Amino acid sequence: MKPTTAQQVNTLLYYLQTKQTPPFKILFWENLQKIDFDYSANSLQQLSRFFAAMAKRHIQLPQLLAHQSGQALIVALAAYIADYLAKTTGQAIAWYDYDRMLAQLARQNKHLTQSQLPADFYASLTARIGYKVYCQPLKLLPDLLQGKDVLPQFIAQMTQTVYQQSQVNLLQSSEAVCQGYLAKVKTGKLQDAAIAFSTYLAAVNFDHSRDSLVQIDEALSAIQQAFGFTQADYLGFLQDASRQAFCYLLGFYIGVTSSRLANAPVRWVSFAQMYDSLGEAFVECLEHSFVLLFEDCYRTPMLVVTNRLFGLAGNFPTTAAEFADIVQRQNAGHLAVYPYQDAVSATADLPALWSSAMQAAGGLVASVLSRLSQGQPILPYVYQAHSSDNTGDELTAFNPSNIKLLYPHDTDLDTVTATDTDTDTNIDTVIDSLYQTLHQNPQLAPIIVGCFDSYTNLPMGRTEGVVIEIWVYENPRLQLQLVLPYQSANDWHSLKIYPLVSHQNGAQTALTSEQITALTTHFYQALLSAPSQNTAVKTLWQDAYVNQLDSWVLPPKDQRIQQQNAQLVTHFDFALLPILDNQPNGNMAAFDYSSIDWRGFDLAKHILQASHQEQRYLQVYVSDNLIKDELYRQVEATEGLYRYGKVVWGVVIKSDAALTKPMSEEERDTPFANHRVSCADILFDPSGQARVEDLQAKASQLMDAIGRVNQPPNAPPDVAFYQLHYQDDTSRAFNLAYPASIAATNYRITSSWIWRRHLPNGMLSNSVVPIIIHTHAYQNKAEQGEIMVLPSQLWDKAYYHYWLSLAYEQFGQDYDLLPYIHWQQKYAQDSTDAATQKRLWPKFKPNRATNRAPSREQSSAIGLMSDKLENPMSATAKQQGSVQQAAVQQAAIQQTTEQKLADVQPTLQPQTSQAAQTPKPMPPPSLSNELTQQLMNDKLRLQTQLSTKDTAKDKKLLLIAIGGVLVLIIMVILVKLMR
Questions:
Q1: For residue 95, which of 134, 121, 122 has the smallest C-alpha distance?
Q2: Which secondary structure element, helix H or strand E, spans residue 214, and what is its range?
Q3: What does DSSP assign to residue 648?
Q4: Left if phi > 0, otherwise alpha if psi is -120 to 50, otherwise beta: which for 549?
Q5: Does the predicted TM-score (pTM) go above 0.70?
Q6: How many CB atoms lie within 10 A of CB 889?
Q7: Fewest beta carbons within 10 Å, which of 31, 111, 201, 374?
Q8: HSE of 723 in the Cβ direction (CA atoms, 13 Å)?
Q9: For the chain, how far is it from start to end, CA to CA, in angstroms?
Q10: How many angstroms separate the most distant Cα atoms in the chain?
Q11: Confidence band (pLDDT; 50, 70, 90) for 708?
């Protein structure tokens, strides 16, 4: 079997590090043994000197690639550079050759189109650093072989990129945020230098032990002593995002470690969820951003961190160890775990019906896992033993034909077979039906077993799980609930299946621990011996089952891959693609622009229904530079464009060079400042009927025409005019007709100022943009020639992600601005003073209408306005409150939290999962007469909602006019007197 890419690369790295002689030739091996490949900064300096020595001897890539030993040399050194980056940032690394990388990009669903790579030498080896950053280290070789010391700059830039991509998106679910932060310490050490005070945490061994909590306390004490924090420093401390991340990291770790030590099932909830349940009594502050919910109370482990540093609450623990001790005393759980043990038989004697029920449960869950192995959703199933299954006085073996798929109307189990599916099934109603059947047993079945997909709380947090209900109705009766937890595949691991757990205590089940162990043993045996799905379930079990409740233990499949990749090979046989001169970069497959029809897009309605946060996003900032520019007229036209505009496709003909590059951090983080004016010339069809491909063709023809002309007199007047405009960066054109000497069309060209926050990533990743034009722009009126880019949160989702994918392909990351904008809005970091407010256009009047969640159709049409906000906070969310007050309120409120925020409860009838699938929205209907009338009504209401009137400016103009009249009168009087 041919060695894998990872095996060959890891073999090369092994011999570089150990300095052992490899079984195959590597060019300049004697010189390489003088370099310390120990992942230190000194190793990079030695490597740079090695390349400089080759440059002095004029050794270039073609010479090295001519021999197998030279190919081994360049692959080894390129791999070390990428591996150095992974090791120093604490990230996992994966290796891809050209074919595997092409397949990897094709599997990515985010960008909705299949990616392509240029089939050249530099794409022969790709390293994935972490889970989002891809690196092609072979691209460094030409510069290195010319003696250029590019390694330090490359490592610095890539390190910053890796840390940026590993930032946790706080807009995800609370459990996902927790997982994102705990991933930074999953190796036992904090690897992210972007976290504040990371040097103080270097000595902490993050192994979820009580000793690790003591080490955290020592680190916090050292920080407090070094900086001397007081309560007066608290608010300033929280203004730094890296310090907020520090509090989140330690808060999540303290909470999870405490719950694990106490064996207490928990889940994380957000402030918005707590606020929805507890109302104004739950104040907003960093410590309440994410709350740890126990069975009968909630706790705020983030407060341990800030309380240790600032002494905020005297009645709250000031050490992580004390917090864990309180959890142990007050919240210790009774969660029982029943791991699978191979070749172990049940020791306790069980009633025959109980054994038959567990056999049925195992067969039923085997059907569920079979669907899971195929990537299909888990549906609610029920198994009912029939009297016909009895032979004499004993129940016969498990009968797969008795497995039924439940529907909402199936209260009597008169169901269809499990092969049918219905995506419109109401899962909650189905589960209610299951429990109704369990309690009533309308067919007097001796055994009923049901299972459904839900969530379960574990000491490590909330995870998915298959809830299994086993009921035996004949004496001795049995009512047992078990949960088979699992974690779907994510960035960190493949699918994982955990051992069976039980939330019931002995009083609820009247069973001994030995009896439940024997029952679960019967279950495992039946699960892995079910005849219909035997092979698929066994394979899944061998790949996914882990024997402990741990988020970071690797499933067997991943462990085997690691072991396989670590195997050394005896020969180098890595296929390198040829070097192609002038090879263009690979581009994404063309986007189907015809799939988006802007003619049915109701712009005025979206503006009218925008929330306060969305209105702030829709505004633009007028800088001093823009006031001096002719493009200021576009700002004045913004209100009219929002009121009366329509959306059409536009094609950028020319733009400022800065627009094709990522925004600077300063411009991204401080948008309301005097940044330079970025503009572009955009070609569009005022009727909105032109195909994008035709607009692109006309833009290309125009560029060819002005490129062929050396002197303006040699060109037709209309082409010469545009050429002069094109060559002058300060020239602006509004509603300029497309040169008729090239083609007879009604297309227009307009210069547009681009507010970079209205682009998905703040730059022109593509030349095709949706723009807003005046409805009557085709009438050739100069005052109606202004246009603006449609704010990207109103874009079609598919095109939004396609736009980001183009940036990702070019720069290695997409630079999506949406998380930054939501972050700034959530924490009021985009709040502005009165002077800045005057420069924001248009002016929105306060919306007095009751805030309502948009309908499914509106949400779909709005696009990305809120699709990344899982639980958006109420518009009336309270200002940040006092942490001391919050700590006092916690004890009084926590007793009612159980009833309001409980998840699947350890009772005989747990609450049901909220995992009902949302049907896909219907496509927007064509514009009917009623919709047209509604549009007109919306626009009339919009006129009262939008106001760009600057009253101060109007007063000044009025005073100037009055003054002018008075001067004129005085001059007339003086003239008469002189006569």
A1: 134
A2: helix 210-227
A3: E
A4: beta
A5: no
A6: 16
A7: 374
A8: 19
A9: 113
A10: 135
A11: low
CA angle 240, 245, 249 (to 5 degrees): 155
Peptide bond into 842 cis (omega under 30): yes
pLDDT in tens, 669-680: 788 877 778 899
Q: In whole angstroms, what is the distance from residue 529 CA to residue 358 CA? A: 13
Give the distance, in angstroms, between the CA of residue 144 and the centroid of all CA atoms in the same chain: 36
- Cα-to-chain-centroid distance, residue 773: 33
Q: How far apart are CA 720 and CA 726, in angstroms?
A: 10
Bond before 476 cis per omega within 30 degrees: yes
The shares of helix, strand and coil residues in the chain, as percent rounded to the nearest 5, are 45, 10, 40
CA-based angle 745:747:753, to the nearest 5? 165
SS3 string, 339-365, reads CCCCCCCCCCCCCHHHHHHHHHHHHHH
Spatial separation of the C-alpha atoms in residues 881 and 4, rounded to whole Å: 57
Structure tokens at 667: 């411009």
As a whole number of angstroms, the distance between CA 579 and CA 581 comes to 7
Give DSSP secondary structure letters for 224-240. HHHH---GGGHHHHTT-
Residue 865 pLDDT class (50, 70, 90 cuts): very low
- Give the whole-angstrom CA distance, residue 500 versus residue 379: 19
Please give the Cα distance from 843 to 840 (Å, whole number): 7
CB within 8 A of 748, min separation 6: which ones?
683, 684, 685, 686, 735, 736, 737, 738, 777, 785
CB 368 within 8 A of CB 527: no
β-bridge partners, 260: none
**Burial (Cβ within 10 Å: 0-12, 13-18, ≥19) of residue 201:** buried
Per-residue pLDDT reduced to its tens digit, 196-230: 999 999 999 999 999 999 999 999 999 999 999 99
Residue 525 has pLDDT above 70, yes or no: yes
Pull the structure tokens for residue 663.
């925004």
Tell me whether strands 290-293 and 946-947 are parallel, antiparallel or unpaired: unpaired
Which tokens go with 461?
């947090």
CA pair distance 713, 354, nearest whole angstrom:
98
3-state secondary structure of 974: helix
pLDDT at 578: 83
